Amino acid sequence: MLRHELQPGKLIAGAVLLLTGVLYAGDADGAWETPWFVAIPLVTGGLCLAGAVALVTSRVRRRRRSIPATTTDDPGPDMTT
User: Fold this and answer.
1) Whole-prediction pTM value?
2) Of 41, 43, 40, whose CA–CA distance to 19 is shortest?
3) Residue ranges per domain, the chain?
4) What distance in Å separates the CA atoms of residue 2 and residue 61, rounded to the nearest whole number?
5) Which of 23, 33, 64, 73 has the most CB atoms less than 10 A away?
6) What are the helix (H) ranges across the chain?
């Protein structure tokens, strides 16, 4: 049993911010050159994507909760031909 629900929006936001940090850490170490303006579209685009994913996830979860669960008492048509 899971301790909490998976939240894909937060996962995407964290991954994008981690990627931005790794890019600038590599630049600070001298491994590669990262222009200063790379962070702005990367972070804003990642946060917008994370927000859209979080919105879709919440809508899907809300819809699943409102649909009544089907019972498995009726096995359906006999498929033993």
Assistant:
1) 0.74
2) 43
3) 8-62
4) 16
5) 23
6) 8-29, 39-66
Q: Count CB atoms within 10 A of the CB of residue 50.
A: 21
Encoded amino acid at 64, one letter: R
Torsion 31-32-38-43 (CA) sign = negative
CA 43, CA 40: separation in Å to the nearest integer?
6
Which tens digit of pLDDT belongs to each residue from 26-63? Answer: 999 999 999 989 999 999 999 999 999 999 999 998 88
CB 34 within 8 A of CB 23: yes
Token representation of residue 53: 């994913």
